[in-house]
Amino acid sequence: MFSPEGPSLRELTVQALSSVERGYDLLAPKFDHTPFRTPDSVLEAVAKALTPLGPFEDGLDLCCGTGAGTEVLAQVCRHSVTGVDFSAGMLEVARRQTPPDGPDVAYVRGDARALPFGPAFDLVVSFGAFGHFLPRELPGLFDQVHTVLRPGGGFAFPVLAPPRPTSPGFWMLLGFDAVMRVRNALWRPPFVMYYRAFRLGLVLRELARAGFETDLYPLSGFGERDDGSPRARLVVARRGQPAAGTVNS
């Protein structure tokens, strides 16, 4: 993180004392040189897991950042790939990236809680963005995704198993969330980023309430925990097909 290519401690401090949008605008030029970018190993595993479920026609990368997820969509979508994010700075970096071969790629500025699309996509993906949404925002977020999917379309995202309380990672994430809560209690505007707010049980319940049917696929390349459960899963939530004789909204 503190390599010459990445942000300095001072830059990270300024970012953390900004709003989420402004913070990412500031971080954007160096974002791909930080641990905040989704690792290529995760992106590749998701693309591999999605391939037998496709092909898809049109894909949306929700909260796309600098566009890492568009390469996943480009591998499984035949017609078009769209990235949406509310940070103009992140989108500026994404547009400068070399577009992947294959479908057309476009980037749109927008809020995931009020998506500027109709039912135009067969696949929506998201990587590493859900910590920016409070649990009470999940119903509205999932409703928005449901709205932009065509009937039968899927919403896919990876979920890593949380660290055990006996591991250093558990206490690191707990400490990070505690610092963020203190920061938001003392400073405005808030910077919403909580690593432990996105819990699989809650997510599955809210997806069902939004009208999705959900399957879990193990990402086997990341191995298993001591109890045999996968260290990483791909959540694929599908919008159901309309009943015969009904008209889609």
Features:
single chain; 249 residues; alpha/beta; seven-stranded mixed beta sheet; 7 strands; 34% helix; globular; disordered C terminus
What's the number of helices? 8
Strand content: 15-25%
**What's the story with the biggest beta sheet?**
7 strands, mixed
Shape: globular
Strand order of the largest sheet: 3-2-1-4-5-7-6
Helix and strand succession? HHHEHEHEEHEHHEE
Strands, total number? 7
Instruction: State the helical fraction.
Output: 25-40%
Overall mean pLDDT score?
Answer: 89
Point out poorly predicted stretches: 244-249
Overview of this protein structure:
This protein has 249 residues and is of the alpha/beta class. It is 34% helix and 22% strand. The chain has eight helices and seven strands; from the N terminus they run H-H-H-E-H-E-H-E-E-H-E-H-H-E-E. Strands 3-2-1-4-5-7-6 form a seven-stranded mixed sheet, with helices on both faces. Helix 4 links the parallel strand 1 and strand 2 (77-85). Helix 1 packs antiparallel against helix 2 (20-27) and helix 3 (40-50) runs parallel beside helix 4 (68-76). The longest helix is centred in the C-terminal third of the chain and has 19 residues, at 168-186. The radius of gyration is 18 Å and the shape is globular. The relative contact order is 0.14. Mean pLDDT is 89; it is low at 244-249.
